[in-house]
């Protein structure tokens, strides 16, 4: 970057921080959330979030490689979700998200004959799944029970397909495809999130500092805020969460189809939303948080898509600013 570009970036960063802090103060300090900020739980939540951010920052900043950092990050996230009584819903929603990604990857590879990356896999997998659910409903076979059977059966087939592809990769019989996977538009995945430091440190330098401190701080902040939302899902219930958690299996699909006459139930709107249709297999389980956890994974993938979009014209470190902001 030239000196002029660095100056412009610095000014933009300072202005962003000032505007954000002022807006936060007007919202939390004197605005509509001032009552919430006065509650004792608010300070414990803020302290917990700061502690999680610090641990994540040290993990990313001090790890010898990205694989180690992401492994311990996954352990921390699992422990956090377990302590906040949200582990099982997040795990179920995560497994369903993997199913959607695999469905999209299968469609990309076998039908479209191309590899567009993780974000496109998820998008196409979601569209394909919604289409199947709509067709099953059209045939009066679209009960939530039947949709779960479809997801389980097709998911097993997708796992077998993925296993065959992985075996081909390992045996070298699909070397070209493996090379394509590694060089796909979104193939960097999580590797690039920590690669803002440029060349690695000399071998005699301390372990800390192998990753760029700014990249580590921003990535830790992103994950800390996602965990903040996860921690509140089963402990701080709000009306909208309950409404959307129970609407799907009580109103949208209480029989054999999403096209049944709902009458005046849910009179605000009686048409099915695509996101609700996609999350139907998670509806009607022991907790509403199974459905709401889908939103958390969608938020994470949206942030990753923002990063991938910025990566089209920016370096890794600069691209991380978009999901961070």
From TrEMBL:
Give TM segment ranges.
Answer: 7-25, 45-62, 91-108, 120-141, 147-169
Keywords carried by this UniProt record: Membrane, Transmembrane, Transmembrane helix
The answer to whether UniProt assigns keyword Transmembrane helix to this entry is yes
Its recorded name reads: Uncharacterized protein
